[in-house]
Amino acid sequence: MADPDDDYGKTNCIRCGDCCEPFxxxxxxxxxxxxxxxxxxxxxxxxxxxxxxxxRTTDNKCVFLFPDNTCSVYKSRPEFPCRxxxxxxxxxxxxxxxxxxxxxxxxYEQIIAKNMDRSQWTEEFRRKLDELAEKxxxxxxxxxxxxxxxxxxxxxx
Length: 157
Ligand code: SF4
Ligand code: SF4
Fold this sequence. Notes:
By secondary structure, the chain is α+β, with helices and mostly antiparallel strands. It has three helices and three strands, in the order E-H-E-E-H-H. About 35% of the residues lie in helices and about 10% in strands. A three-stranded antiparallel β-sheet has the order 1-3-2. Strand 2 and strand 3 (about 50-55) form a beta hairpin. One iron/sulfur cluster binds near residues 15, 93 and 95.
């Protein structure tokens, strides 16, 4: 869901909730906000190697989406993809134009297809994703170093 007041600029989000599907999120994030789940969970998948989880719901909507299509973790929602939707330079909103005009069904489908097609992503969006990936790798290395140090300490005593 787009944030009309966030750093990426103004949007015309009408809170239709269409872009709030189940996404892979940081494992810690899912655990920290488990009490904010709003929908019946169909199943959870956990990917320890990349420290991520995917929570699937019975209606294929994000588990944090309230029935009125607002977000139960809005202030803390993840950067990717939640804070990037509705921003023309990142992921374009399929429902409303940047000028606030409702899109036709055909336009809606075209934009969904474009958003899914990695080759169409702008340089700026790719750069942002690369930054996030680097941040995650750095974080993983830092964690692994810490675990190694702790293990070494335990071996020494
Ligand atoms: S699809 Fe567009 S209008 Fe609907 S919630 Fe997402 S950003 Fe808002
Ligand atoms: S965390 Fe919030 S903004 Fe992100 S997909 Fe879920 S409901 Fe939408």
